[in-house]
Amino acid sequence: MSYHVAVQRFQPKIKLWVEREGALVLSDYRVHLLELIEETGSLAEAAAAMQLSYRRAWGKLKEIERNLGVKLVESAAGGAGGGRSRLTDEGRRLVGMYANFRRTMERDLDREFARFFPK
Length: 119
What we know:
Blueprint: E1 17-20, E2 23-27, H1 28-40, H2 43-49, H3 54-68, E3 73-76, E4 84-87, H4 89-116
Helix pairs in contact: 1-2, 2-3
C-alpha cells in the first residue's frame, strides 16, 4: 500500500544556539531577554514580559555574561522611577549578529527544505 504524504503542509523549523568553549551563550530565548531589556530599559520589565521571575532573568543574564566573558547590560540608578538598564555596545553588537545569523539560517533552511521536500 502506498501513501502520498502532503509535503506542502510541512514546515521546517530550526533551533539555534551559539556556544563558546562548550558553554551556551546565545539562543533565541537569551537574545529575546536582551532585546526586551533594551526595549523596556528594565530587567524587571523584561522578566515580566517573558513571564520569568526577576531572579531567573537576572541569573540568566549573569550566566550569559560569565560564559561570554563580557558585560552585556549596564544599569544606572534612578530617581523615583528606579534605575534604567540598557545593553552595552557589545551587547547590541551580539544581539545584531545573532539576528543576522538567524535570518540567514532561516533563509537557507527554507531553500534546503524546498530542495529535499519538493511540492
